């Protein structure tokens, strides 16, 4: 794939920086992304003449995590648990209520104006709905060049050259430059979405449900593409998804979210082999496996009820209203976020 | 003879053929799966069996599509639910004129496709019922849940007033909705997605139908809620002996739910087999490709996926050869030399190279 890049106006590519690729393998290097106790609360407003704030949706309610350069962190959880809001707050597309975000050691949370804009070019997002996120009246050439224009990168010809190279990297021919989003299949549109995110050669890409709108056979194509691009461009990913198998396949570290908080985090191997939190256990037991023998012999943990409202989360442990193992203490005391085994964190009072 | 026998079903919208000679059967107390990717004809097949497709070809062709599908039948259930699924947003492919349906769908000895609309309406909800993918658009937003259930009970079982309300509450309780009397007074938007899907199932089973068609009943739901709904459907089949036609694109759901599976590609069955057979020995390259595309929790981590190349847009017409040929790794000249036949009885496949594939 042609990614050779000599244009001085275009942000440096990872592949050309030998010192950085060595940093990827260096365990002592600081994480690329560090998030501390991030909170995003949305006010609930009532009133016709005078609006009053009557409460808050605690969409993200104290989440901390870090991602090593070149790594993939998978954030998984059910609808409404705050995954997208977290991803958006990391990119400062949503204003955090509290907490800190550092990228490459620099604090992003405090940035404003021009400096914030420069930072944004290092962090990009790939959306779930490829069609909804692409302007229908712009052809591919315009769609891909736009982020470069916004950041004042390159001349028109240079931008076009980069667009062609990026299309090639995501497996689309140069001939699509003049076409419009509706002329593509779902899988091709997602490739376009990824190409657009790649145009500024970012360090971090937040992929929000990158495959959930796609057919099974196309999902596999896009997942393989994300893998290849990570190596080729030295990307760091935050993958947000509700599908546990997708997250396991893509990530080396996984965090499970419930009602705005992390309940468990570990490397993918251990979280799937030895889940410790009751919610993780229930999620894993609920995923149907494409194997009738496995399905027939399976112990399912069927959880009762629905997700409680994030505006009014249960006291103590937020999972207690659905947890099969809940005891009195769970309603009174919030479990601490503790390291239950090396590199394996969990928020539960018990060792289950 | 099976409870439902679909024979050589064909559905065309103008010049475009959505279902192209599909046959399968469903026995009492059994779960039969229709699986395949978007646009392969799963919903159209089920809507044809239910008599819910907009009519075309002379028969009441004057009726506009919208009016035909939003006819207030099925107990306040807007059958228009079928519309957003069945009619592409583009409205394209000359489909506006309605569907031309051919073949047979024999239910308990009677060909449903030959029934007059009124006769079909009497059976729908009573003998056969359907649960749609999107529970919100299948419920009437301005009618309380309770009213939507009692309407069905009144029409098909003659229950009225308190008797009907009591039965409605029992039904909600049975599908696992707590505090059913309160819920009866609520509107669809006051319920979560999982609860709405339960309400739809409650409506569908209100008259103890002998056949239930579930079109992607859990696709819009979270896995923990999906597990609850699947458990509910399993229970229904086991305790009532209901025949269940399960439509899904999820091979995991197929593996956990179905006794028999039909894999559809571009409007045709390309492989059909008892569920264990299919997963133990997938024979059609498309089935093999689907299985190779799914990341699995029980395989070593980061096991590479082997996707199918291209997309469903890359097809040829079945009469010219195998529609899967443009995406198939094993394609050879016999594949594009006329129509490939479905071969085999218990485990059937539609692939001319299957001997070599096996
Ligand atoms: N702009 C907003 N204003 C008010 N509430 C919001 C806003 N955005 C999100 N929320 C609420 O915050 C919570 C978390 O939403 P979020 O979209 O982050 O969840 P998610 O985990 O991404 O879910 P999904 O899997 O459905 O995408 C939800 O209860 C949602 O309704
Ligand atoms: N009313 C209609 N008019 C014209 N074409 C239609 C109509 N309904 C469906 N089709 C076409 O028929 C084909 C089969 O559609 P169908 O809805 O059965 O697919 P499906 O297998 O259910 O897909 P999905 O998984 O996306 O629900 C598609 O190509 C679709 O565009
Ligand atoms: S703290 Fe209690 S309620 Fe929470 S997950 Fe652990 S056992 Fe369940
Ligand atoms: S008939 Fe030929 S093209 Fe079709 S699936 Fe079989 S090998 Fe592939
Ligand atoms: Mg989201
Ligand atoms: Mg469908």
Automatic annotation (TrEMBL), chain A:
Domain (ABC transporter) ranges: 44-284
Superkingdom: Bacteria
Family: Belongs to the ABC transporter superfamily.
Organism: Glycomyces niveus
rRNA processing as UniProt keyword: no
Protein name in UniProt: ABC transporter ATP-binding protein
Gene3D superfamilies tied to this protein: P-loop containing nucleotide triphosphate hydrolases (3.40.50.300)
Cited Pfam families: ABC_tran, oligo_HPY
TrEMBL record, chain B:
Key words of the record: ATP-binding, Cell membrane, Membrane, Nucleotide-binding, Transport
Domain of life the protein comes from: Bacteria
Gene Ontology molecular function: any one: ATP binding
Residue ranges occupied by any ABC transporter domain in the UniProt entry: 4-291
Annotated coiled-coil segments of the chain: none
Gene3D superfamilies hit by this protein: P-loop containing nucleotide triphosphate hydrolases
Source organism of the structure: Glycomyces niveus
Main location: membrane
Record's subcellular location: Cell membrane
Keyword match Nucleotide-binding: yes
Family, similarity comment: Belongs to the ABC transporter superfamily.
NCBIfam families in the cross-refs: oligo_HPY (TIGR01727)
Bilayer disposition of the protein: Peripheral membrane protein
Protein name (record): ABC transporter ATP-binding protein
